[in-house]
Amino acid sequence: MHLIMISLLCTVAYGISRISVPNLKAINFAEKINGQRLNGSLIRDIVVDSESSCQLECVNEERCQSYNFGTIEGDPNKFKCQLSDSDRFAGFANFTEDKGFIYRGIKSACEEDSFQCGDHSICVLNYQDDSVRCQCKHGFTGKPCGSGVYTINPDGGKPIQVFCDMITGGGGWTADQVQL
Fold first, then answer.
1. How many CA atoms lie within 13 Å of 175's alpha carbon, on the beta-carbon side?
2. Which end of the chain is more exposed for a tag (fewer CB within 10 A), N or C?
3. Is the CB of residue 80 less than 8 Å from the CB of residue 49?
4. How would CATH label the architecture of 28-107?
5. pLDDT score, position 95
6. DSSP helix/strand/coil, 176
7. CA torsion angle for 103, 64, 13, 130 (degrees, to 10)?
8. pLDDT at residue 11 greater than cutoff 60
9. What are the start and end residues of each CATH 3.50.4.10 domain in the chain?
10. Span 129-154, mean pLDDT?
11. CB-based contact 150:161 (threshold 8 Å)
12. How far is 85 from 62, CA to CA, in rounded Å?
């Protein structure tokens, strides 16, 4: 019993995402996000009596990376629990507003600092080693996504290369090197 309690405390204290060993399974869930849900990548859609029951279903399903938890119209004692094998970062396009649901993913480096990749990229987590990489959204390049050297032709004459800074002061700065 003491070993189980120590393992659970380590999960919470040290940010381990998932423990799965014989006789012990645990997940360190991130904070819930009200009014959002992840569509697609559904493992199972089940009816439960509480959010705790939904969390236990996710813990017991090895593929579960997140869940949606929502009300069932007309039955205040039953709830929808949708287990997903994806998360809001990998399924960014499918993360939508839905006032009847909450979303909760497994705590990860992306969850802890979702702004590490900036506004123009998506945090992609490697669940094996908890490392992250930033994947640029469509139409953006560079590191961080959006910043970089671009060729522009503002007056229709000779094209010039400029550095576009998409971070400083909210982004949108263009620097042109003038040589005298």
1. 11
2. C
3. no
4. 3-Layer(bba) Sandwich (3.50)
5. 87
6. coil
7. -110
8. no
9. 28-107
10. 71
11. yes
12. 9
What is the residue type of 50? S
At 167, the pLDDT band (50, 70, 90 cuts) reads low
| The model scores a pTM over 0.70 | no
Tokens of residue 58, six digits: 């996710």
Question: Cα–Cα distance between 33 and 37 in angstroms, integer?
Answer: 8
Q: Residue 62's CB: how many other CB atoms inside 10 A?
A: 11
Q: How far apart are CA 10 and CA 4, in angstroms?
A: 10
Residues 6 or more apart whose CB falls under 8 angstroms from that of 54 comprise 48, 67, 69, 79, 81
Rounded to whole angstroms, the Cα distance separating 67 from 94 reads 13
pLDDT digits (tens, 9 = 90+) for 63-114: 999 999 999 988 989 999 999 998 887 777 788 999 999 999 988 777 766 5
- Do residues 124 and 132 make contact, with C-beta atoms less than 8 angstroms apart? yes
CA end-to-end distance (rounded Å), the chain: 75
